[in-house]
Amino acid sequence: MRFKDRSDAGQKLAGVLAPYRSADVRVLGLTRGGPSVALEVARALEAPLDLWVARKVRVPGRNTHKLTLGAVTEGGGVFLDAQAAPQSPLSGAPLQDFLRGELEDVEKQARQLRGGPTPDVRGRVVLLVDDGMVTGATMAAALLALQQRGARQRIVAVGVATPVALELIRGRADAVHALMLKVGLREVAEVYDSFPSLSGDELRRWLTRARDSSPARASGVAPDVGGGWWF
Prior knowledge:
- By secondary structure, the chain is α/β, with parallel strands linked by helices.
- Helices cover about 35% and strands about 20% of the residues.
- It contains 6 helices and 8 strands, in the order H-E-H-E-E-E-E-H-E-H-E-H-E-H.
- A 5-stranded parallel β-sheet has the order 2-1-6-7-8, with helices on both faces. Strands 3-4-5 form a 3-stranded antiparallel β-sheet, sandwiched between helices.
- Residues about 215-230 have low confidence and may be disordered.
């Protein structure tokens, strides 16, 4: 399986996620690649749509800058890779200070992109959508943040995932939907024909368009989660 682009992946995910059509559902696109996928899901489910800002954290230092230490997200989500952390030149209080600075940067970016308050997820079923997961680090951090914000259920939906990412995430989410499981995937772009990067300005324009065309909130009973492809 391949996807034409992120919208194609979103349309395919929307069919799988149809059982979640409910007034309690909120769709969040994980930045940067998730919003375009999430837009198609929100349209199909007639659900409120927003983004959730996330960032990979690189190990500080001249010789280790390409090593991913983990990820942070708005809402205070932090995930540290247990294998990468010992390779960081920082530990203890200096590491906590470094992560605090990363979190502050993410919160600032979220305010700039959204131009409004963080979406209220307390008591809601949140569909956290992304184009794919290679390590699962950003998704793990986002799930923690949403748990801290009081989300009732946290459902992960992605176009593609590696077995490693799936193993990490399925113990942290209430359920995980992945259209494709791919061993040896190094970049999410490998399964997309078109995979443009999105700048901050493009994300702001995307969010404005998404809000302008936001469908009416769906009504109904709590979703039947018996269908779909579950891990």
